[in-house]
Write a structure and sequence with these properties.
alpha+beta, 2 domains, nine-stranded antiparallel β-sheet, 12% strand, ARM-type_fold
Amino acid sequence: MSIEELMRRLAATETQRAAADELVALGAPAVRPVLDALCDEESPVEWSTSATVLRRIGRPALEPLMEAMAAAPAHEVARRAGWAYSGLEIDDLAAFEPGLRHPSPEVRSNTAYVMQLKGERALPYAPRLIEMLADPDDDVRQRAQWALDELGPEVVPLLREVRRSRTAGRLRRPALVALASAGGPEALDERDLALVRRLVRIKMRDEVPEPMHLDGSWFALPTGDQDAVLDAFGLSDPEPVTMRMGAAAWGQEHHGWGWIDSRRMYVTPRFDGWTLVFGCPGGDDDDTELRDTVLAWCERLSARFGAAHWYGTSCGDGWTAWCIAEQGRVVRYYDAFEEDDQVGTGHPAEEGYLLPHEDGFPDDAFDGVDTSDSEAFRARYEQVKAELGVPDTCEAPEIAARASVDPSALGPGTRVEGHGVLALTATGREEGHPRGALPI
């Protein structure tokens, strides 16, 4: 059967599998027509089907895919070729080595990704990946760092050697970032730690608060006594950090709702009279309900500091929650996903808002409106909302803004006292800091 006929069959669901098997068996002669289909955005062959055939063909498809990435007329074509390239069934990693030195940044980036996928098997190529930390292309530099992260502990001494080399030139700074990313703070020697700490101190002097992306949970305490806060949460080994570093550390460990034990917590400077604490201190039984855990913590903290607030929000699924305690007693608890488990009947910070589970619209408010037409529905929604005076719906940031401090609204007008720290929880003392460099 001709290759042309096999390509026609590759486009048909009922003959696709058999045609793919025959094209793979043909090997090198099939690469060009399959690659042409992959790069043709109008091809009747599903791109993932042609890419999978090329992956299975393996070595004969390697150079043609490099060429396709380098010459791709559109991002989508480069993406398709890169996906096929990264999954080529080739056991000998040496075949990919030329891609690390290819003139095309697209090829260099995708080859670094291949090394990342191979993990410790790619350790022989660490010297070249380290050189790529100074690549002129941003994406290539980032891919090289991610690849080094996956090469295992033996990459750490190689990066240290670069740090100590007098001839490494412009590689020395990115090697420091890669060293912290691949091995964590423990991988830095005293000289590098001193350098980082000095830079943090310098950056702290003029840092302006910036809005934080909220996705997880945090506490708010009306105090500036940082030592007392650290003691209350059982935190140790506090390391001064910029606000940017603290926010990034929280973002690395947490994404979503619930109670996830942190290795470290970010204790902020005092913002407008409130110290915020990001992360979860752990120490509670895994079977304990989130509500019971939060209530217990807020009661303990408010008995010590006079008041304690806890807030939670998820940018992915609409979850939001808050807990407000005063003088050792919870006066308000609300969870949008567990509205029957509320404590208290409301709080002054909620006044004038609808709670997330409440619907302020009459049943017939959107009769006759095509809900599939988002523009028309939105227009009708705003019209009815204005006519009936339906309040806005509140979430954790709105409650925090009224009751304490909204981290997503930090800015030049926020009063800042002191500096923030990253400190280890019991889990962190046992397992160490998470890997990953933080922006200063």
